[in-house]
Write a structure and sequence with these properties.
This protein is α/β, with parallel strands linked by helices and 442 residues long. It has a single domain (2-276, 371-439), classed as TIM Barrel, CATH 3.20.20. It contains 16 helices and 14 strands. The protein has an 8-stranded parallel β-barrel, surrounded by 5 helices. The longest helix has 19 residues, at 148-166. It is globular and about 75 Å long. It binds flavin mononucleotide. Flavin mononucleotide binds at residues 51-53, 98, 127, 129-133, 220-223, 226, 238-240, 273, 335, 337-338, 397.
Length: 442
């Protein structure tokens, strides 16, 4: 079983002010990130993860004010320099970094990730996103979001270009011969000369190939087109955890898409994004879980959700069904999958009032309602059940903890030893790189 830990939200949506969270520090204090990386490495976790969003939420009422006021989806930094610093106080833990293939240019991203893979000594993963958020799009020159399927067309070409660049210099091209002064063999450095629908890139990358050559590639698209894009290029997949039946279906859909691309499905794991709250006892875990109910003020719920789905929920009619709203969201080019996952507790054809909707979604906004909460043994039971039912390939991304470092310490000190006792988790790092650690089924 492989475990990632998502730190992206630790200072957002009120989590920063809960007991045990951001103790003696405020975002973006570097000392906290260094401490978290060291704790995660003590627990032998595979990687820590940073998602991304670059715009301040402003879909709700067409204004950013509520987001600014309540700390919804902001502030967020580009975490690449932070990863550099964290890598210097650790040796094994990997780092997942997110960039959007809809907004960024592949030459810049390929070059940056090459450098980061050097700095971290082969510990980088790249989470490629198509982006669903209008506030992000507006910072990159878009008046409207690019059409959903086209975003994935662009993603595939984006990664094809990155792969071409990462392979444009052969690993043994460099000689650095002091006597003759020869630096590299020109026969081992090739142009890319890519001309596609979205990009025109000459190449080669003017870089020394990095320890992993390319970062571990990860993608989380959950729509049929998103899954097809994953099959095109990923090493591993991120996916939500909407319930075991749906997860088994997701695994099957991915296997089918991988087969269609002629790839070996057994080598591509799914890392399930799940809120796991562990305590020394079940009662301790429940106390941590209940704190989440105090995190997000109800005023912030509409702001958060509207940004996530790219649709202004302040315009909801007094009564509506999820199906009706979802149709509008699909028409506006945001992701239908993301929205339906948020609302599994309702029958999509039931009529709801605005009040019922926002009240129920307050728990969703705080990551309260889907959390798996318990002692290490109880949480490990859940993990084993999902892991076995979905083919024992991949693992879990522990997401949206109430507060770090407190809840990361509970994972490292209670959950990891329990999984090790069951023979489900490593007792030491065996790989030299993140890719090797993620391929290790020991
Ligand atoms: C673990 C995980 C991490 C994700 N990280 C981000 C992120 O950092 N930024 C973002 O805009 N979307 C993120 N997403 C959303 C996905 O990229 C994707 O948009 C979503 O799963 C819907 O898929 P679809 O576009 O195929 O419908 C993440 C999803 C998961 C499951």
């Amino acid at each position: 079983m492989h475990i990632g830990y998502d730190l992206s939200w630790s200072h957002l949506e009120g989590r920063w002010r809960l007991p045990g969270s951001w103790t003696h520090a405020t975002f973006p204090d570097m000392r906290i990130y260094k401490e978290l990386a060291q704790i995660a490495e003590r627990g032998l976790l595979d990687f820590i993860f940073f998602g991304d969003g670059s715009g301040i939420p402003n879909t709700w009422k067409g204004s950013r004010d509520d987001a600014v006021k309540w700390g919804v989806g902001w502030p967020r930094h580009d975490m690449s320099p932070y990863i550099s610093v964290m890598s210097q106080v650790t040796q094994h833990i990997g780092f997942g970094l997110t960039y959007s293939s809809t907004f960024m240019h592949p030459f810049y991203v390929a070059r940056l990730l090459n450098a980061l893979d050097h700095v971290t000594n082969g510990r980088m993963a790249f989470n490629v996103i198509a982006s669903t958020r209008r506030a992000d799009a507006a910072n990159y020159g878009f008046d409207e979001l690019m059409e959903h399927e086209r975003r994935y067309d662009r993603m595939e070409e984006f990664i094809d270009v990155c792969n071409g660049l990462w392979n444009s210099v052969e690993p043994d091209a460099f000689i650095w011969d002091r006597d003759s002064g020869v630096v590299a063999d020109p026969a081992k450095v090739r142009a890319l000369d890519h001309v596609g629908e979205f990009f025109k890139v000459a190449g080669p990358l003017a870089s020394v190939p990095s320890p992993q050559v390319r970062p571990v590639l990860i993608q989380a698209g959950a729509s049929p087109r998103g899954i097809k894009a994953s099959a095109h290029f990923v090493d591993h997949v991120f996916a939500m955890s909407p319930g075991l039946d749906k997860q088994v279906k997701h695994r099957a859909a991915l296997d089918k898409a991988l087969a269609a691309e002629g790839r070996d499905a057994s080598r591509v794991g799914i890392v399930w994004d799940v809120v796991l709250i562990v305590g020394e006892t079940e009662a301790d875990a429940r106390r941590r879980h209940d704190l989440l109910l105090q995190a997000v003020p109800v005023e912030a719920v509409g702001t958060f959700l509207s940004h996530q789905i790219g649709y202004d929920l302040s315009k909801l009619p007094d009564k509506f069904t999820i199906n009706e709203i979802n149709d509008e969201i699909v028409a506006s080019q945001a992701s239908p999958v993301g929205f339906l996952n948020m609302t599994t507790e309702f029958d999509p054809s039931d009529t709801l009032t605005k009040d019922e909707f926002f009240h129920a979604l307050q728990k969703h906004t705080a990551s309260y309602d889907h959390a798996i909460v318990g002692s290490a043994a109880q949480v490990a039971d859940y993990m084993e059940e999902v892991f076995v039912a979905t083919g024992e390939s991949g693992g879990f991304m522990i997401a949206h903890p109430p507060g770090v470092p407190r809840d990361l310490l509970s994972v490292v000190d209670f959950l990891v030893p329990e999984l090790q006792r069951r023979g489900r988790f490593r007792t030491r790092y065996t790989g030299r790189t993140l890719r090797e650690n993620l391929a290790d089924d020991e």
